[in-house]
From TrEMBL:
Keywords: Metal-binding. It comes from Massilia consociata. This is MBL fold metallo-hydrolase. SUPFAM superfamilies: Metallo-hydrolase/oxidoreductase (SSF56281). InterPro entries: Metallo-B-lactamas, Mito_Persulfide_Diox, POD-like_MBL-fold, RibonucZ/Hydroxyglut_hydro. The lineage of its organism: Bacteria, Pseudomonadati, Pseudomonadota, Betaproteobacteria, Burkholderiales. Pfam families: Lactamase_B.
Length: 233
């Protein structure tokens, strides 16, 4: 039985949020929720008759504030975060290879993919990869702060993500070009930053990007390390 994630978008930060639901409706998980869309996300959960049991973060975000803490308080869901991201209020500190179980028979596989940040994680569920900022459609996340490393990101993508079944659907954490989903096979062959580049070539490319500092970084990072419960936005 094919079960598709619900993909929701925040236009201000170009962030995707995902809701995953068990086919029998017995449980649900949300990935990378955005604080300003708390009401929207709760409305989706209520409309579909879902019981939210897990709130997942792919990393500590620098461009928006999470609603993880508020969702946990409203629903009783567990907050689940990468153990290397410094988010101590979350009760579940994830490690590479963990399995998160929800609903009657669902599970999410946890894949540690350092590079965008030192603690970044991707999540695999029913042939769907939620790749955060590690792998974007035709791109990848920046690697110049939060313990980021272009060399580590290259290894994470080529040695872990690109070894998945090529039919695996890639659901990115962000998109700035109107793209919503891809596949591992397409990204292996066509990704503008990673395909057909050596590790050294990729490191050189990323070092030359000179990207601007995220506008909300000084607010978002401290807030997200507290599951979004203390911020001034």
């Amino acid at each position: 039985m094919q079960v598709n994630p619900i993909q929701l978008f925040d236009a201000e930060s170009s962030t995707y949020t995902y809701i995953l639901s068990a086919p029998d409706g017995s449980g649900a998980a949300i990935i990378d929720p955005v604080d300003r869309h708390l009401a929207r996300d709760m409305a989706h959960i209520a409309r579909l008759g879902l019981q939210l049991t897990h709130v997942l973060e792919t990393h500590a975000h620098a461009d928006h504030v999470t609603s993880a803490g508020r969702l946990r308080a409203m629903t009783g869901a567990k907050a689940c975060v990468p153990s290397g991201c410094g988010i101590p209020p979350a009760e579940v500190q994830l490690e590479d290879g963990d399995l998160l179980r929800f609903g009657a028979r669902e599970h999410i596989a946890v894949i540690h993919t350092p590079g965008h940040t030192a603690g970044s994680m991707c999540y695999l569920w029913r042939g769907n990869l939620f790749s955060g900022d590690t792998l974007l459609v035709d791109g990848c996340g920046r690697t110049d702060f939060q313990g980021g490393s272009a060399a580590d990101l290259y290894d994470s993508v080529t040695r872990k993500l690109f070894t998945l079944d090529e039919r695996t659907r890639v659901w990115p954490g962000h998109d700035y070009q109107g793209q919503s989903v891809s596949t591992i096979g397409w990204e292996k062959r066509h990704n503008a930053r990673l395909a057909h580049r050596s590790r050294d070539e990729f490191v050189t490319l990323m070092a030359a990007l000179e990207l601007p500092r995220p506008r909300l970084m000084d607010v978002a990072l401290p807030a997200n390390r507290k599951l979004g419960l203390a911020h001034g936005i």
